[in-house]
Amino acid sequence: MIPKHVAIIMDGNGRWAKDKGLPREYGHQNGVNSVKSIVEEAYKSGIQYLTLYAFSIENWDRPSDEINILMSLLVSTLRDEFDEIFDNDIKLNAIGEIKSLPKELVSELDFIINKTRKNTKMTLTLALSYGGKQEIFNAIKIISNKVKNNLIELNNFDDSIINSHLYTKNLPDVDLLIRTSGEMRISNFLIWQSAYSEFYSTSVLWPDFDEVEIKKALSSYSNRHRRYGTI
Ligand code: FPP
């Protein structure tokens, strides 16, 4: 079975570059090539939702040079890939504290999100300045205000109220969560939405994660028995 929603923690760009005696930025540049191949392969495989952890809220603590490189790479990749995204009927989406990103990136995102809003083949979501705890905290703040103003009744409170106040309100829960580079952590990524997702970790570093590697992840998923806590 093909998972409907695949989310990926793209990790190991820095180590990939270090192993080759190169500056970290080379890892990020080569990471972009993996992004392109994985988007293409996900699309070909019929995955409907692909969510990529491109910049966490904690990543703001990195040296400013590295942040600037990542932001420029995001802007240039979005610009270069717009036609490909649009022509392949892919809808672009962004989750996180988008307003805290550089203006140039926000306007590039706004442009593509608006142009591709009617596309239906696959939704590609970029998590940018994203933190799962922050997302839940924001939702709680909005919901509390609505409860205070009698817009939501506590008696009617259920999962769907939380879901509809998250950045991911238009996305289904995650079926398969992939992390590269061998780490076994969630790192504040889609913590609510991954409650019952299948986890796949590989020691392959993100710039080396290609079509063959995602096929391995999909094949592992197809052999899992999802029980959602039942027997
Ligand atoms: C993790 O490697 C990777 C990131 C923090 C950034 C991922 C970003 C890209 C691949 C670039 C552009 C993305 C898109 C969607 C166009 P790391 O730096 O944490 O590596 P390390 O753990 O080995 O240091």
Give a written overview of the molecule:
With 231 residues, the chain is α/β, with parallel strands linked by helices. The chain contains 7 helices and 6 strands. The protein has a 6-stranded parallel beta sheet with strand order 3-4-2-1-5-6, with helices on both faces. Strand 3, helix 4 and strand 4 form a beta-alpha-beta unit. Helix 1 crosses helix 2, helix 2 runs parallel beside helix 3 and helix 3 runs parallel beside helix 4. The longest helix is centred in the first third of the chain and has 24 residues. The chain is globular and about 60 Å long. It starts with a strand and ends in a 9-residue tail after the last helix. The mean pLDDT is 96. The structure holds farnesyl diphosphate. Farnesyl diphosphate (FPP) binds next to helix 1, helix 2, strand 2 and helix 3.
Output the structural class.
Answer: alpha/beta
Assign a percent range to the helix content. Answer: 40-55%
Order of helices and strands: EHHEHEHEHHEEH
N- to C-terminal separation?
20 Å
Write the layout of secondary structure elements.
Elements (H helix, E strand, L loop, with lengths): L4 E5 L3 H7 L4 H22 L3 E8 L7 H24 L2 E6 L7 H13 L6 E9 L1 H17 L10 H5 L12 E4 L18 E4 L9 H12 L9
Parallel strand pairs: 1-2, 1-5, 2-4, 3-4, 5-6
Helix pairs in contact: 1-2, 2-3, 3-4
The protein binds farnesyl diphosphate.
Output the keywords:
43% helix, 16% strand, binds farnesyl diphosphate
